[in-house]
Every structure is written in C-alpha cells, then in structure tokens.
Amino acid sequence: MEEGKKRVATLVGCNYANTKNELHGCINDVMTMRDLLVSRFGFKQEDIEVLTDAPDSPILPTGANIRRSLGRMVANAKPGDVLFFHYSGHGTLIPSAWPFHHGFKADEAIVPCDFNLITDLDFRQLVDQLAWGVSFTIISDSCHSGGLIDKEKEQIGPSSSTIISELASDPVRDQNHKPKLIPFDSVLQHLSSLSGIVSSHIGDHLWHLFGPEMSASLINRKLPVKPSSSSSSLKRPADKDDGILLSGCQANETSADMSPEGNNETRKAYGAFSNSIQMVLREHDGVLSNRELVIRARRLLLEQGFAQQHPCLYCSDDNAEAPFLWQTGNVKINSTL
User: Fold this and answer.
1) What residue spans carry the region label Disordered (predicted)?
2) Is 279 helix (H, G, I), strand (E, B) or coil?
3) Cα–Cα distance between 165 and 237 in angstroms, integer?
4) How far apart are the first and last CA of the chain?
C-alpha cells in the first residue's frame, strides 16, 4: 500500500447510561483515541466523526448512524487513504443462520445504543467494498469481538502460533469492572419488549423496529439465505484484502469496562483493551506494526491481571507487519490518558 493520502475516522462510544447495561469508560476511550489520532497519526479534526450516547451528543450511535458514517468513509475513499473505526461498547453473539459458519456456530455483533445490531457479515461487506489500496483498520473494544470481520485471516488469536506465556500474575487490581457483554437472550428480550410482536427470530423484531435500516444479514434469520458472492467480494481474495481488525478479546471471551473505585476524579473509567492500546502507543513513540501493537497490548493486559482477555489480530499477512495506521517516522504523543 502506498502512503496514505487522506485519513478518516469514525469513533463510537456507547455507555448506555441509566440502563441495566450501563458502562462507564466507553466514551472516554474514543475521546482519548481522537486526541491520539490528531497528535500522532496525522488525522485532521474535521475528518474524525465521533458518535457517543452522551446527553449532549449531536449524533447518537444508533445502528443506522454508525452504518451511514462507515458507509460514507468507504464510498468516498481513494487509493492510499487510511480509514479507521474505533468501537467501545457492548458486543454479543448471535446464533448463526448457518450452524457451521465458523467454530463457535455464532456470528459476532456490536450493540449500538438502540440495539440495531451490526454483525461480522456487515463488516465483511464494508471491507469488500473498499477500493484497491485503501486500508480499513478496526479496533473493537467489546465482548466476542474476535472475528468481527467475517472470514478475515487470523494472525493472533485462539490458534495463533504467537504465544505469550501466562506466567503467574496478580488479579485485576481494581475489582470494579464489568464485561462488555449483553447475552443474546437479553438482546432478544429487549427487542421483543420494544417491537411488541411474538417471535423467537431476532430478524422479525429488527425489521419491525428498523425496517431497511437493519442488518441485511439478519433479515432472513427465520429462513436463512446464504450471503451472495456475486457482488464486490469478488474483487480480491479474502486473505489479501485491506481489512485489519484489532479485537479486545477472542470470539468466546469478554472484554472489561473498568470503573476506578471511589470518587477519585483523576482516574477516569476506561475499557481495558482501549487503555492498553493507548498505553502502548504512549510508551513506544516509534513505529509499531499491527502485530507488535497487539502483542504488546496482550502482554500489558496480562501484567494488569486480565488473564482471561486475549486481544487478537485479524488481517492479511502483509498488513500484520504493516505500521499501525500506516504511521511513518517518530512522532511524540501530546495527549494524556
């Protein structure tokens, strides 16, 4: 890939305030990342769209709004552009329409603030639509985020040859943490309460609530239709595309949302994975490859006591060794965590 000509980002933080699913660090995660993008990676403020569910947010992170923002990024990208999506919020696993789709027999999804789910098949479709020479990096700090780009090649994950020895480590020092997980049954129950219809198929409720703005991959959950391969997915081999996923955990694991105990205003809530990425970037101001960044973040989480959360990397072989966000040269970080 040639050096990026334009850098465009969509940052999404969902705290689900005043609900039983409330998290605390997700908005902080993406605001810190926005500062990093500008100070270190050459992004311009006007090319970064931030969607949060804060009370004063001008654009809420609904499924439709997230989809539109990502769709604009992909549609307007030119060869050499660098696209970035950072999501911090809840994730879920959906029973697969195709039971042998992959090992966990479920599809990964993120949970926007209105529960209009966006699935791994949706992200695959976005990557397939990329123009040649455009990179699309995703950081998903959510539960079950491993494999969030469907069929992306695993570089660091459950079956990776990259092993970090799990030596004895202290448990998480700040015990006030919560998994970024909403179980599928809870998602279905919530959507059922909103739609008012009786159905065990999630697609029925999503269609009733969101119509054509729902995920196309969930419309035919009752009578599943295999996704077509006749579209833009034929432009390049699946293992040669420019989708890059840095996930907060494996597909069968949870990611942690940390809320420092007490009323210490100097310690903000954060997502464990987002914080580990930001700490690694702050401590190593030189160029880091995608592989190096994930390995260092995985090691840091282990040192912090997160022995059951393993960040993963999914991308082509070439992109595994490519610089994170195609950084060139050494740039000092001006922002703080």
Assistant:
1) 225-245
2) helix
3) 34
4) 31
Q: Rounded to an integer, what distance in angstroms lies between the CA atom of residue 130 and that of residue 233?
A: 10
What phi and psi values does residue 51 have, to the nearest 5 degrees? -120, 115
Catalytic: which of 14, 113, 143, 249? 143
143 is catalytic: yes
Which of the following is catalytic: 14, 24, 26, 90? 90
Q: Tell me: the pLDDT tens digits for 229-274?
A: 434 434 555 556 899 999 999 999 999 999 876 555 557 999 999 9
Higher-pLDDT residue of 10, 330: 10
Task: Clarify whether 90 is annotated catalytic.
Answer: yes
Residue in the block written with tokens 């159905």: 199
Amino acid (one-letter) located at 290: N
**CA geometry: angle at 72 spanning 68 and 76, to 5°?**
170
pLDDT, average across residues 192-203: 94
SS3 45: helix
CA atoms of 126 and 67, how far apart (whole Å):
10
User: Scanning the structure block, which residue is given the tokens 């029973």?
Assistant: 95
Smallest Cα–Cα separation from 89: which of 274, 320, 335?
274
CA distance 145 to 140: 6
